[in-house]
Amino acid sequence: MMSHAGEILxxxxxxxxxxxxxxxxxxxxxxxxxKFTEIPELHLLxxxxxxxxxxxxxxxxxxxxxxxxxxxxGYPMRKLAKVGVS
Length: 86
Fold this sequence. Notes:
Layout: H1 22-36, E1 41-46, H2 51-56, E2 60-61, E3 66-67, E4 73-80
Antiparallel strand pairs: 1-4, 2-4, 3-4
Protein backbone atom coordinates (compact mmCIF):
# COMPACT_ATOMS: atom_id res chain seq x y z
CA MET A 1 0.00 0.00 0.00
CA MET A 2 1.32 3.46 -0.94
CA SER A 3 0.05 6.94 -0.13
CA HIS A 4 -0.55 9.63 -2.76
CA ALA A 5 2.67 11.25 -1.50
CA GLY A 6 4.77 8.15 -2.26
CA GLU A 7 5.01 6.74 1.24
CA ILE A 8 5.06 2.96 1.25
CA LEU A 9 2.80 2.18 4.18
CA UNK A 10 2.57 -1.62 3.98
CA UNK A 11 4.73 -4.22 2.26
CA UNK A 12 4.63 -7.53 4.07
CA UNK A 13 5.09 -11.07 2.81
CA UNK A 14 3.86 -14.22 4.53
CA UNK A 15 6.77 -16.20 6.02
CA UNK A 16 6.21 -19.09 3.60
CA UNK A 17 6.56 -16.69 0.64
CA UNK A 18 9.84 -15.09 1.75
CA UNK A 19 12.63 -15.33 -0.86
CA UNK A 20 10.21 -16.43 -3.58
CA UNK A 21 10.06 -13.08 -5.43
CA UNK A 22 6.72 -12.02 -3.99
CA UNK A 23 8.08 -8.96 -2.16
CA UNK A 24 10.15 -7.93 -5.16
CA UNK A 25 7.05 -8.15 -7.36
CA UNK A 26 5.00 -6.06 -4.94
CA UNK A 27 7.75 -3.43 -4.67
CA UNK A 28 8.11 -3.26 -8.46
CA UNK A 29 4.32 -2.80 -8.75
CA UNK A 30 4.46 0.12 -6.29
CA UNK A 31 7.35 1.64 -8.26
CA UNK A 32 5.35 1.31 -11.48
CA UNK A 33 2.36 2.97 -9.80
CA UNK A 34 4.61 5.83 -8.65
CA LYS A 35 5.95 6.26 -12.18
CA PHE A 36 2.45 6.23 -13.68
CA THR A 37 1.18 8.84 -11.21
CA GLU A 38 4.41 10.88 -11.47
CA ILE A 39 5.38 10.58 -7.82
CA PRO A 40 9.02 11.75 -7.76
CA GLU A 41 10.17 9.94 -4.61
CA LEU A 42 9.25 6.85 -2.63
CA HIS A 43 9.81 6.85 1.10
CA LEU A 44 9.13 4.53 3.99
CA LEU A 45 9.95 3.69 7.57
CA UNK A 46 11.72 0.33 7.57
CA UNK A 47 12.18 -2.22 10.30
CA UNK A 48 15.70 -3.26 11.26
CA UNK A 49 15.07 -6.62 9.61
CA UNK A 50 13.97 -5.12 6.26
CA UNK A 51 16.69 -2.47 5.93
CA UNK A 52 19.02 -4.62 3.81
CA UNK A 53 16.12 -5.61 1.55
CA UNK A 54 15.27 -2.01 0.73
CA UNK A 55 18.94 -1.06 0.24
CA UNK A 56 19.25 -3.96 -2.23
CA UNK A 57 16.43 -2.40 -4.28
CA UNK A 58 17.87 1.10 -4.36
CA UNK A 59 16.60 2.78 -1.20
CA UNK A 60 18.96 4.82 0.97
CA UNK A 61 18.83 5.52 4.66
CA UNK A 62 18.02 9.15 5.44
CA UNK A 63 18.46 9.71 9.17
CA UNK A 64 19.06 7.97 12.43
CA UNK A 65 16.37 5.50 13.49
CA UNK A 66 13.24 6.95 15.03
CA UNK A 67 11.65 5.40 18.09
CA UNK A 68 8.12 4.27 17.29
CA UNK A 69 5.14 4.13 19.68
CA UNK A 70 5.39 0.32 19.78
CA UNK A 71 8.98 0.55 21.04
CA UNK A 72 10.84 -0.65 17.94
CA UNK A 73 13.10 1.66 15.92
CA GLY A 74 11.97 2.78 12.47
CA TYR A 75 14.57 3.54 9.79
CA PRO A 76 13.59 6.38 7.39
CA MET A 77 14.50 5.45 3.80
CA ARG A 78 13.87 6.90 0.35
CA LYS A 79 14.33 6.22 -3.33
CA LEU A 80 14.01 8.66 -6.20
CA ALA A 81 11.43 7.41 -8.68
CA LYS A 82 12.18 7.33 -12.39
CA VAL A 83 9.26 9.49 -13.41
CA GLY A 84 8.46 9.41 -17.12
CA VAL A 85 11.29 7.01 -17.95
CA SER A 86 10.36 3.93 -19.99
